[in-house]
Design a protein that fits this description.
With about 325 residues, the protein is an alpha/beta fold. It is built from 14 helices and seven strands. It has two domains: about 160 residues, NAD(P)-binding Rossmann-like Domain (Rossmann fold, 3-Layer(aba) Sandwich); about 140 residues, N-(1-d-carboxylethyl)-l-norvaline Dehydrogenase, domain 2. β3, α3 and β4 form a beta-alpha-beta unit. The longest helix has 23 residues.
Length: about 325
């Protein structure tokens, strides 16, 4: 359900001042999309010579595309700036906060870190099957912008839409964000499956059961199950599990080829968010007694507690059960 919003409708159909925090592949791609749509864009990274205060000054939209490990720091930096505008905050980060969560509290999501710091600002999540390299090549893609404030989602929708990049809206912010986060763990498992050359049947089973695991966790979190059948759930899962452009897929593939996690990560350009997400997710599942067999095996694999083949064998030898459980 959408809430009433104070977003001025004048932001629709106008050239916006958009600040994008994070100049990696995804941040740069988003900047290109916004420029192509006719907006003024400022791109910032931690290595930028221009002060962050100047970058966010006058922004209509502030989008965060930094890695999960950098979100807290960036939030605190922006919070310390006396903003002259009341921008829409957009999170495009797909990870779980490792510094939060306990037996009585769920780990924080990137959007929640922003919302906690700016409780009166509209927050939007952008997530979907968006391999940056393909979008940079001009290949068609679609994504979802989710918020509990429809007007804010519509502003971001229009700001990034183009004939080659279709943007949908969704009121289930939690489900859209979790879909993009949790699929990274399954992508590591599928990369391992492909690295072991286990075939299409095994891969199809793993992706399907992976989706069931995502829905189980997401439903516990409070998301709508149907959201995970959309672009930010199943769509992103299919893209990430079927492309060597996916860093998380490449982690699993590299481990299956006998490389150490340290070596695999050293050869990646950018962050494989699924590695940290797996650690936080398995901790949560253990505390709350949530069944996540695939994530458990990925966790053991990442921590060198089990071989790739043994991880697959453990999944195949689980107790018999109905498919819908």
């Amino acid at each position: 359900m959408y809430l009433r919003s104070a977003i001025p409708m004048s932001l629709l159909s106008k050239s916006l001042n958009i600040t994008i925090l994070g100049s990696g592949a995804w941040g740069t791609t988003l900047a290109t999309l916004a420029l192509q749509a006719g907006h003024s864009v400022r791109l910032w990274s931690r290595q930028s010579s221009q002060p962050l205060a100047e970058i966010v000054e006058g922004a209509d939209v502030v989008m965060s595309a930094v890695s999960m490990k950098g979100v807290r720091s960036v939030v605190e930096q922006v919070k310390a700036i006396p903003l002259s505008t009341h921008p829409i905050l957009v999170s495009a980060t797909k990870g779980l906060d490792s510094e939060s969560g306990s037996e009585t509290q769920l780990p924080l999501l990137p959007s929640q870190l922003w919302q906690n710091a700016f409780p009166t600002y509209p927050v939007v999540v952008l997530s979907g099957p968006n391999l940056a390299e393909e979008i940079q090549q001009g290949l068609p893609a679609a994504t979802v912008v989710a918020s509990n404030q429809l007007a804010a989602a519509e502003v971001v929708q229009e700001a990034f839409s183009s004939p080659r990049f279709r943007v949908y809206t969704n009121p289930d912010l939690l489900g859209v964000e979790l879909g993009g986060i949790l699929k990274n763990v399954i992508a590591i498992a599928v990369g391992t499956c492909d690295g072991l050359q286990l075939g299409t049947n095994a891969k199809a089973a793993l992706v399907t059961r992976g989706l069931a695991e995502i829905i189980r966790v997401g439903s516990y979190w409070g998301a709508k199950p149907e959201t995970f059948y959309g672009l930010s759930g199943l769509g992103d899962l299919l893209a990430t599990c079927n492309s060597s452009l996916s860093r998380n897929y490449r982690v699993g593939f590299g481990l299956a080829q006998g490389h150490s996690l340290t070596d695999v990560l050293a050869h990646l350009q950018g962050t494989a968010e699924g590695v940290n997400t797996t650690q936080v997710l398995v901790r949560l599942a253990s505390q709350q007694k949530i069944s996540v067999p695939i994530s458990q095996q990925v966790h053991s694999l990442l921590n060198s507690e089990i071989s790739p083949q043994a991880a697959v064998d453990a999944l195949m030898l689980r107790d018999y059960k109905p498919e819908t459980v």
